[in-house]
Amino acid sequence: MHNLIFLNDFNAPDLAPYVKFNEAQLFHAREPQPGLFIAESPKVIERALRAGYRPASLLVEEKVLGRDLAELDREMAANQTTGLAQTPIYVAKRELLQQLSGYNLLRGALAAMHRITRPPLTTFLAALPAQYPRIAILESVVNPANIGAIFRSAAALGIDGIIVTSDSADPFYRRASRVAMGTVFQIPWTYVDAQTWYTTGIELLHQAGFQTAAMALRHNTIKIDDPQLHQVEKLAIILGSEGPGLQETTIDHSDFTIKIPMTAGVDSLNVAAASALAFWELGQRR
Fold this sequence. Notes:
GO terms for molecular function: RNA binding; RNA methyltransferase activity. The protein is of the alpha/beta class. It has helices at residues 16-19, 23-27, 42-50, 65-78, 94-97, 121-126, 144-156, 174-179, 194-207, 227-230, 248-253, 271-282; strands at 3-6, 36-40, 55-61, 88-92, 110-114, 134-138, 161-165, 189-192, 211-215, 222-223, 235-239, 256-259. The strands form two sheets. Strands 8-7-6-11-9-12-10 form a seven-stranded parallel β-sheet. A five-stranded mixed β-sheet has the order 1-4-3-5-2. The longest helix has 14 residues, at 65-78.
């Protein structure tokens, strides 16, 4: 049995996460406890549930209610994950749901999910695999679509974890998790405060035994397939913002500066595309 609540309007206070809160308000909705985020589509919701995130509620289109709940229940049973019996499931006709910004881009259900407390950087690093870990650092990557694409590539190409500076876009923004196809719930990740990162971040990585590879264009760059990179036992790949790239101090303090060879006349790739190539090459253990 499911706790179904059929709607004629969006006036109920419990619907605020869907109709009133923006991304920042969701993030701070339960302070001092971790906030909320919205997961879109049954596939993304299922991956969040499988990873242990608890739903506060669901909002489902009446026409596809049976299909979406069947998909979620089946995945929950297959993965021995807690079901949805006690979760409020709000049901509305499409005409009402079309009042929600962006609903026409979606495929069915929405879920308001509880965030979890992300581990501090030192705890996160200590929990990584002992043998040849490969991690990514996202420094001031502000486009949610790029964040989502990077997470999807990292999950697919052997990256063990991701560290996101606090001046980057939130991986749980709706657009980010949608582009990532829910892989933001599969790969371990945490935040690092931006000020901490820019002052002592690389030092903390070095203390944990990592060498750092900054993706940037400089006179002393080495190619991404340089054999010495594959000899590094613990490697952190640092990717920068879409426009200005990495901070000069980040590059100065990194052990390597690496580049993807380009055809003449082109100097760089979008950060998401560059990450996929870097993860493919450097995520392999040799």
